[in-house]
Amino acid sequence: MALTKRLGQKERTYDRGVAGEAQAVKYLQANGYEILSERYKTKYGEIDIIARQKNVIAFIEVKARVTVEQALQSITPKMKMRIANAALFFLSECEAANQCDLRFDVIAIQSPLSAGNTVTHIDNAWQIEP
């Protein structure tokens, strides 16, 4: 019984994440971004969305949380390193991306998802030390 309950929670969390990412993609496209990849997976980690706007490539982590602060707090240093390593892998595969400015963004989506939920886009939410 407990295992079934946990599996149900895991599925709801996954579904909330997928819905949040879909909403983030719509938001980005409406704001002039070209979506280069969604759910970009490597052996180093996953990037929710890779998008381009003019000469900037943004590696975007999407978090559906009650507040923006909770979304930002949920991104751990370990997670940032995984995303950075996946970004480096992306750059090794996409030569043209090396000519662009790069940044790590967060899109926080007010959760639970509703018709009037808020999307907050934080440009350059963190930087990776060289």
Structure description:
The protein is α+β, with helices and mostly antiparallel strands and about 130 residues long. The protein has a single domain, classed as 3-Layer(aba) Sandwich (Trna Endonuclease, Chain: A, domain 1). Helix content is about 40%, strand content about 35%. It is built from 3 helices and 5 strands; from the N terminus they run αβββααββ. It has helices at about 1-30, 70-75, 75-95; strands spanning about 35-40, 45-55, 55-65, 100-110, 120-125. It has a 5-stranded mixed beta sheet, with helices on both faces. Strand 1 and strand 2 (about 45-55) form a beta hairpin. The longest helix is centred in the first third of the chain and has 29 residues, at about 1-30. The model has no long low-confidence stretch (mean pLDDT about 85).
